[in-house]
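Section 5.1 Outputs to date
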Amino acid sequence: MDYLLLPFLSFLVGIIVGLTGIGGASLITPMLIFIFQVPPSIAISSDVVAATLMKVVGSVKHWQQDTLDKEVVKWLALGSVPGSLSGVAILHLIKHTGEQNLDHILLRLLGVTILLITLLALVQLLLMTFFPKFSLPALPKFDLTTTWGRILTITIGAILGCVVGLTSVSSGSVFALVLIGFFRLDARKLVGTDISQAAILLLFTSLGHLSLGTVDWNLVLPIWLGSVPGVLLGAKICQITPQRPLRFIIYAILMMVSWKLVYQV
């Protein structure tokens, strides 16, 4: 393990996250697997723990600024936390039965998850770029003052939480689409709500992955060292960087990464 290369690459990933908002797990976990030859189970668990610090620090700031919707955070967390723990429980079951190769399963599951999320984001970006007047039918807005709205919110949180527990991916990117589509959050509260729900989700998911015994602190600490200042720098320069060309490049890279993960032999 090159302990200088890992913080440097994590720093670059942090810049990309700060610039584009694209989830760090979609980049860091494949980086650990392909460049540093880390087994998928260790890469995923270590990335979950590493991502938690950034999300918690960011969420505290947003809570202080009141730039989040606390009701949305609460009801999503009521679904996503048990959902993520269910995902970790599935990993426990696979690991202890020994009937299936955990790394083999996670490699393909991670690839499929990144592929689906990237395709969804890419389609949205293409529509915005080439068909700016095209508008899809509006999704129903969840009303958290009603029982049905709360049930739907908890259900979506549980499904996405399970995916995060299994793969570490989508704690931010897919949840952001949910916040836009079903809650109509304005830009001022979107980022804070997304980061805060992800912080709660990843905090409990991290505890689950720690219980698996697959977290490598020799990976977590260098990732923290590089990614935290990278995110701060990326956020600073995002206003002067052309977003759409950069996103196209990142999505193309993610498509290739996900394809290799799915068909890794």
